[in-house]
Amino acid sequence: MKGNGLPRAEVPAAFDAGAAAYDRLVGLNPGYHRDLRLSARRLVRPGHQGLRILDAGCGTGASTAALLAIAPDARVTAIDASGAMLARARAKSWPSTVEFRHTPVEEPPAGPFDAVFAAYLLRNVDDPDSTLRALRGLLRPGGQLALHEYSVRDSRRARWVWNAVCGAIVIPLGRVTTGDATLYRHLRRSVVAFDGVTELCARLSAAGFTDVRTGTMPGWSRGIVHTVLGTAP
User: Fold this and answer.
1) Is Methyltransferase given among the entry's keywords (predicted)?
2) How would you label 20-33 residue by residue, b for 16+ Cβ within 10 Å and e otherwise?
3) Which of 159, 164, 223, 225 is deepest in the core (most CB within 10 A)?
4) pLDDT digit string, tens, across residues 138-162
5) Number of domains in the chain
């Protein structure tokens, strides 16, 4: 494992190994599902109906559920590179407007989409800039991208809280629950190495997005979890 987390090629297998316990572990995180819904609410504008949304990096479907909570009539295409995580998602009950596909974000389905939601995805790809440009290319003019992501580099307090929570809770609990803390050590290191919010906004602008803006979360994840939004011109 590198200092900034696992190589991209090893990330899907790490999620495969952690898939069985993943929902149970994130359920212990106060605010995890609430925060996803808040980012989804920031993405989906009031009054918009029948949207076609790409859920990029859907995992076990928590982000998909958040989107449907805000836009219940949306047509959602949910993709993930981890087959085991996707199997957990597919096993849940979904409306016929939801489709799951086993594919990495580097090989996305054809657009256009009205919106793209990417939760905890960008720090796990090899080339974030190319990924952002590709996602912009999938959007209709005026369509929006929402990144829901950990970002602590810009704040000393956020880094301290993140490292404390991971060291005292996330990694030990992951090890006890799954017998292997690889995924959770990757989580800690990849977040610490990832962009600050300022740099992340600059990436979106450089990738051609306009009206780039951000918002953080309430509770313990304030300043740690953020929504970063951009509009396709």
Assistant:
1) yes
2) ebbbebeeeeeebb
3) 225
4) 999 999 999 999 999 999 999 999 9
5) 1
